[in-house]
Amino acid sequence: GAVVSQHPSWVICKSGTSVKIECRSLDFQATTMFWYRQFPKQSLMLMATSNEGSKATYEQGVEKDKFLINHASLTLSTLTVTSAHPEDSSFYICSARKTGMSNQPQHFGDGTRLSIL
Amino acid sequence: GNSVTQMEGPVTLSEEAFLTINCTYTATGYPSLFWYVQYPGEGLQLLLKATKADDKGSNKGFEATYRKETTSFHLEKGSVQVSDSAVYFCALIPNDYKLSFGAGTTVTVRA
Questions:
Q1: Torsion sign, CA atoms A42, B107, B76, B41
Q2: In this structure, are residues A67 and A79 in contact, taking their beta carbons and an 8 Å threshold?
Q3: Which of A36, A104, B16, B65 is deepest in the core (most CB within 10 A)?
Q4: In this structure, are residues B99 and B93 in contact, taking their beta carbons and an 8 Å threshold?
Q5: Which residue of A has its CA nearest to B47?
């Protein structure tokens, strides 16, 4: 079945560091990928929609300059948390949708737990 | 707008008990409906789906039926196991194709 790989699974770093998270669709092409943030015991909050070859669409309240998204190929999207601070600590999850399958389920990565000291 | 309302948890059950998690939705048009499961420390996995009214999704003993008249998609399992302990999310994809999640329901099954 469709597999989405997210890397790294766990990151611990110092405040002020920039952290890059990768999301890859392993066996399908994904024109659209999504980035979510999940706080403990809460639901997923959509941060942005990543579109291959174009700018990402950010949800209201999400800082574009803080969370840089690049979707350079049909199988890879990256989220860079720039100058991370403790309040950015969270569980980040990506998902990918098969190209041409807009109303079909997204396939999720296993998430990245980001801890900023 | 589009929204999903899930039964609040946490839900604690004994093994072999019957599980129901209620889910109702608000959406324009004819959304597709999903249940996702999240095991501790992991991402989300698609559990089952239904794409039109009266469809029944099923997987791993779980079932849910798309009820347009009641705008519901309740999740059920007749006999739960300890390994079913997880957080369950009801979700929909409406006409604008953005996935909307419910708040999630934590289920704990005791041996």
A1: positive
A2: yes
A3: A36
A4: yes
A5: A105
Burial of A66 (0-12, 13-18, 19+ CB in 10 A): middle
CB-based contacts of B27, cutoff 8 Å, min separation 6: B2, B3, B71, B92, B94, B95, B100
| B window 61-80, beta carbon within 8 A of A | none
Q: Is the dihedral of CA A19, A71, B94, B89 positive or negative?
A: negative
Q: Is the dihedral of CA A12, B105, B34, B80 positive or negative?
A: positive
Q: pLDDT value at position A105?
A: 73
Q: CB distance B101–A42 less than 8 Å?
A: no
Of A106, A109, A111, Cβ closest to residue B99: A106
| CB nearest B101 (choices: A41, A43, A49) | A43
Taking all residues of chain A, what is their mean pLDDT, rounded to a whole number? 90
| pLDDT higher than threshold 70 for residue A63 | yes
pLDDT in tens, B60-98: 999 999 999 999 999 999 999 999 999 999 999 876 677
Nearest to A102 among B51, B97, B101 (CB): B97
User: What DSSP assignment string belongs to B76-110?
Assistant: EESS--GGG-EEEEEEEE-TT---EE---EEEEEE
**C-alpha span between A70 and B2 (Å, rounded):** 28
Output the six-digit token pair for B109. Answer: 């099954």
**Three-state DSSP class for residue A62:** coil
Pairwise CB contact (< 8 Å): B42 & A34: no
